[in-house]
Amino acid sequence: MALVRSFGRAATGNLADVGLLLLWVLGTTIAVAAQQQAPDASAVHQTTQGINDMWWKHAVIYEIYPRSFQDSNGDGVGDLNGITSRLDYLKDLGVDAIWITPIYPSPQVDFGYDIADYTSIDPQYGTMADFDHLVKEAKARDIRVIMDFVPNHTSDKHPWFVESSSSRTNPKRDWYVWRDGKGPGQPPNNWLSWFGHSAWRFDARTGQFYYHHFYPEQPDLNWRNPEVRKAMYDVLRFWLDRGVAGFRLDAVSRLFEDPNLHDDPLLPGTNAYGDQNIEHKYTDNLPEVHEVLKEIRQVVDGYPGNPVLISETDEPNIAELTKLYGSKLDEIQLPMDFQVADVNQLSAARFRELIEQVEGNPAGGQPYFFFNNHDQDRTWDRYGDGVHNDRIARLLAALLLTTRATPQLYYGEEIGMVTTPPARKEDVKDPIGKLGWPKEKGRDGERTPMQWDMSNNAGFTTSATPWLPVPPSYKQRNVAAEENDSGSVLNFYKQLIRLRRNQPALRDGQQSTVNSHDADVLSYLRKNPDGGESVLVLLNMSNQPKKVALDLKPEGIDSNGAKPLLTYPKASPTEVPLDAISLPPFGTLVAAVK
Ligand code: NOJ
To answer: Is 334 close to ligand 1, i.e. is its CB under 6 Å away?
Structure first.
């Protein structure tokens, strides 16, 4: 099984919680100015009461990596018109919103996460007219468009940074994090970039170092500067004015750093790049992050249609995750649950624990689950056992699409795409793969082109050279083939999404875990809010057949049997007795009970 490559603490050895956090002692002028720059006061805050009506609570969200989804002009790189041409497919799948990873002008060092202009479209993806067309066509199909907002850093080619690095007295100098070295040739402290080696880069022209949490080509913005905040909130308004339905916030827990530049504590061992491991204690999750999240929320709440904020915040535990909702549900509506995403083993006990924790989060916030994204190996490889992968793919799909959490898919997971990393270092596109080879092969493997059909390059492009090679598996796994096979993974996803939409219990029902009296069987009930049919989900997370007996009387379920709505492997649709439910190895049962 391939290793997970997340940018969370676990992946880099940063295992400890952010502990004692130091107060920022910047000049009062900046602090006061930041307060004064409060966003739109007319903003309407969302209350707990209103949460049930929110579209994002019921939405199925689909992440698109635009370079890899569909190329429309034959240059080997996916683009906006390509996405537009596939909207009918997404509609048919049952998607309510698409999150598109960055499409702004960028040198593409980090494939769009290094932004050189926040309010334009990179010509390789199309034009602003193409973007508007996409939003319009998506809207015509009831599909919302969610943008990726990258607030922590810009590209080093962004005009703000070009100015900032031009002289120590440039008005934009303070827009980034500049510091003197400890001594000649020595960085200010021991902080490490998540992408390897020192997080400080020396700038010979001005004789200072700048801080970059990610690649050196991604200098960190200084969020203590009120002008930066204003400029970034204007970016949000620009896209909201164009009709987007919200934002996925990139790496927001990393917005602030310790102003006293304390060295991070050392941890045992080395990372894939050969650096001594550290705990990113002084650069991650500082309390000031919440001040900014509230301000961002106020900006989006000033717009109609309940725009959503989804945060990439890989919190280590439920306490930290809960904080992201805000004490008055006034920060992030949908913080991504990386704990659930990265269980990385089929452990019914662990999933049950995490689901119960997030269900009971004291803020009353809506959970948000996903298993795949553009930064880590696909689930097929992380959870598959090599024998029952087809079953495991469906079991995870059922878990994703039957809990109360808002589910997010990543393109290709619905057809069972596999991780296909480059075989040779010289083929690697993602810079961390070049730096960390062979321990870290980069993220190309989970970003390969979407597999649409059996034609050349899987129908992704007419170019002979797609930006990443199409995996050989496309001949078996592609949309066209799976659409024609009623038993395919794709059709299983479609059925699940339809059930989620049409069964009131799955759409709106409360959730409670049910004791299956078997450590390997995860079971939960979604209660019908109107007293009709409820939905029972049973997932056998082992390679052994199981027989379980359930008592649902305490849950108010009187019937003795359950009527299968969806099973895998396929089973008879006749009612099964609740006191003797048989589940094959890695079997999935979604059933109606009353
Ligand atoms: C998280 C994004 O998901 C990842 O792809 C990117 O490299 C880093 N943030 C830096 O923006």
So the answer is: no
